[in-house]
Amino acid sequence: MTWKNQNYLLWVTSALLLLSLSSCFKDHCTRTYTLYAPVYKTLTEVRQGMKNQPARALEYPGKLYIYGNYIFLNEQEKGIHIIDNSNPAAPRNIAFINIPGNVDLAVKGNTLYADSWGDLVAFDISNPQDIIAKSFLDNVFPHRRMYYAYYNYNPNNPNAPVNPDSVKVIVDWTSRDTTIECESYQHLYETYYSLASADQSGSFASKNLGGGQGGSMARFTLVNDYLYTVTSYSLNTFDVSTPQQPVLSGTTNIGGGIETIYPFKGKLFIGSTAGMFVYDISSPAAPVKTAAFAHVSSCDPVIADDKYAYVTLRSGTACQGFTNQLDVLELGNNFTAPTLIKTYPMTNPHGLAKDGNLLFICDGKDGLKIYDAANVGAIKLLKKIDDIETFDVIVFDKRALVVAKDGLYQYNYANTGNIKLLSKINLNRKQ
User: Fold this and answer.
1) Which domain covers residue 71, as residue numbers?
2) How would you write 28-47 as a 3-class SS string?
């Protein structure tokens, strides 16, 4: 059990995590457990530590963003790696920004936007070796309000000022072996263990997009002076005309199961487990839904071009359902009437990207697939890169940047008949 899931915070502070030894007798028994207790800091102290640190090895990479010659790569719920990609054949991991609870990110000019559990943080990244957190928006992602769970938070007044000195954040755990009688164990089991469902063992884009580019799995995106983010049920709009002082200008409830967001030509394409939504942002502070396309329950990244949307549907525990396919949708006049053109079977597709007629799909354990999509009714597989389990891809300047289970890959696809691996940054996962 980790500290990542707020549903089990109370339980894990006092309950057993792992049974390490047991000895039982007919009338009496004892058992020895490893118990974990949280170590707290105030939110003020945690925020003081949100700054650049020496580069560290990649362990569990997540979302990806590129800006200029830099790659910003999320380390799941830990922070963001900064990688100098001036030489794609030899990218350099130069720094790490410590951001507890980080999952998503976006970059505009010298400002990096990142979530930290329920908060939005704006960083000044003008000097990659001296990154500074400039502002915090408290609890703007309430579905992830990890450290506000036991704070004196009033849901009827969510905009009330937060005193970060009074908010406690779990930053570490201490452990000790404890031997207790079986009767006490039974009480712990009935009170805590049986209530827990988790395992107890523990030039890169169009200028109007803000100058940077995120992948199709992104939940943050920038369009001009606005940052748009999605939660599992809402679309948030932030005014970033003063880049390092973002202001939440609106929240729109758009249903459940929301997963990804992708901007294209004044529209936001939003993927959910139930379908795809299109929102018009001609009035950028007030997005308006203009179209929707329903599909079976599945995870649903989406990208678009001038005529079509490309939607990958996949199965899995978090996604429900058993569908694994690519849907190609014709968007219709002004992107208001999406209709299904063709469905293609896949293995377990995740992120995708497009460059001209080339369509790149991360098909999970089935590798990276590159298609000729000039005819969307009959796309042709040009190349399949095996032996990697892929998650997301960004394409730019005839290069494909791929986040995979075992590292960060970079390919040159200038010649689709001879796609070359330029570099790979390996993971260094702790056993």
Assistant:
1) 1-202
2) CEEEEEEEEEEEEEEHHHHH
